[in-house]
Amino acid sequence: MNTVNISSMMNPSAPARQDYEIIDATELAKRWKVPVSWVKDYVRTRATDRIPHLHFGRYVRFEWQHPALIAWLERHRSCYQHKNGR
């Protein structure tokens, strides 16, 4: 498992925050069972509701199990369920 505490990297004297596993678009797509192209489409600036992500230069990464990522998924899940009457 590849976890990073970003606050401690930026400020070693800062109090510890929750560590999240840092994953790439391929891994996120695999875990959500969608195409990688779908994930990348929802990261691009032209997307209306972008997936929360981090930029490391040209590299895009995601914090697995971060509350913002979970909230994004729930917003989209509830839209799907609402349209189907579930």
List the SSEs and their pairings.
Elements: E1 3-4, H1 6-10, E2 20-23, H2 25-32, H3 36-41, E3 54-56, E4 59-64, H4 67-83
Antiparallel strand pairs: 1-2, 2-4, 3-4
Describe this protein with a few key phrases.
4 helices; 86 residues; globular; single chain; alpha+beta; 4-stranded antiparallel beta sheet
What do you see in this structure?
This protein is of the alpha+beta class. It is built from 4 helices and 4 strands; from the N terminus they run βαβααββα. It has a 4-stranded antiparallel sheet with strand order 1-2-4-3. It has one domain. 42% of the residues lie in helices and 17% in strands. The model has no long low-confidence stretch (mean pLDDT 82). The longest helix is centred in the C-terminal third of the chain and has 17 residues. Strand 3 and strand 4 form a beta hairpin.
Cα radius of gyration in angstroms: 15 Å
General shape: globular
| SSE succession | EHEHHEEH
Structural class, by secondary structure, is: alpha+beta
> Can you summarize the main beta sheet?
4 strands, antiparallel
Q: How many strand segments?
A: 4
Strand percentage lies at 15-25%
Proportion of residues in helical segments: 40-55%
Total number of distinct structural domains? 1
Count helical runs. 4
Strand order of the largest sheet: 1-2-4-3
